[in-house]
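Lab channel / #folding
Pinned by the channel admin:
"Please post every new chain as: sequence first, then the structure tokens as a reply. Keep commentary short and put observations after the output so the thread stays searchable."

First post following the new format, from NK:
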Amino acid sequence: MSSVISVVGIGADGWNGLSAAARDTLSAAEVLIGGPRQLDLLPPDACPGERLAWPSPLRPAVPGLLAAHEGRRVAVLASGDPLFYGIGRTLAETVGPDRLHVLPHPSSVSYACARLGWAVEETETVSLVGRPLASLVAAVHDGRRVLVLSAGADTPGAVAELLRSHGFGPSRLRILEQLGADRERILDATADNPPPGPVDPLNVIALDCVRAPGAPRLGAAPGLPDEAYEHDGQLTKRHVRAATLAALAPAPGELLWDIGGGSGSIGIEWMRTHRSCRAIAVERDAARAARIVRNADALGVPALRVVTAAAPAGLAGLPRPDAVFIGGGLTAPGLLDACWEALAEGGRLVANTVTLESEALLAERYRRHGGELIRLAVAHAVPVGGFTGWRQAMPVTQWSVVKTAAEASATTTSVTGTGDRG
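Reply from TO:
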């Protein structure tokens, strides 16, 4: 039977802040694995085991390092709660949760909320440890409280600059350093006027978000203003975009293929519905693909993956989608078939078009597979001399369909690799 690995959370207060059970576990360990800072918190006389610092990159080294010490009493050190943005998740995915004995310590979020008087369950947390700064954007809304897990001493300044650039300069910004330790300190400032002095690398940033007067307001629901996007005209317009996302029906953890990405708006707003939603935009034009990346960063979903290729060839090897949106290239030979075959039972396909040729294709697929075929028409009030009249936008024909179990069993996935969900 494989040996159990102990995972012990430790705070900035070090050995003195550990429970008796955690101390006993670390004292009995033959091998102690952790970051250099964590290992330095353990007194050598109380913890005589062999000490090993994690190599970099960490994740690829985990299986080999654990296998090399199989059969020995191994204790892994983690900052705070090991299963809150910590090494505990990597270990559980590597060896399985049944092989772990986790002894958590209060997380930095628990400490921060205790100092601020914030309810933990009402406080959104964003980690910037190993993640792009742009990940924070989607969490910033007027009146919201956000805790940012910092990547180091430079993070508070970068966060302040990001807030200013997005119209949130008046936001209160508190930097909580060395939480739980004797050197604990809280710096109080705003994004417009961040602390001028050096900041301790071990910090958490608390944000009271305040939107500056006149700054653009971006809601959480699909249908962001068209002005929120950089585009060259290839953009699913706001009202059609909202209807399209409703038909795609994103749910947490799901993956979307956004084919003919244009400006990336469908994939971006799919990902903004929930932090675990994922999207791959497939766009053949290199300039537009680069624009999608910029839009994704600006709107807080930098994890959007962009494939610069023409479909259907560019779909080869992609992980199986839960939903597919086709916003361009419907007449490309084999595209509709490839997208349909990629979907499993319950997968959704939504396609929009404004041309008669593509509309004929959608009508034929509607007769074959059913679903819903609708026409979306939007008119805007505009000046007409001294009066006001309606200006009609080009109507959009939309086909949406859910793949049934019978249809799923009748098709063979040919464009995905292993069927991995990413």
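NK: Residues 413-422 have pLDDT under 50 and may be disordered.
TO: also worth noting, The chain has twelve helices and 19 strands.
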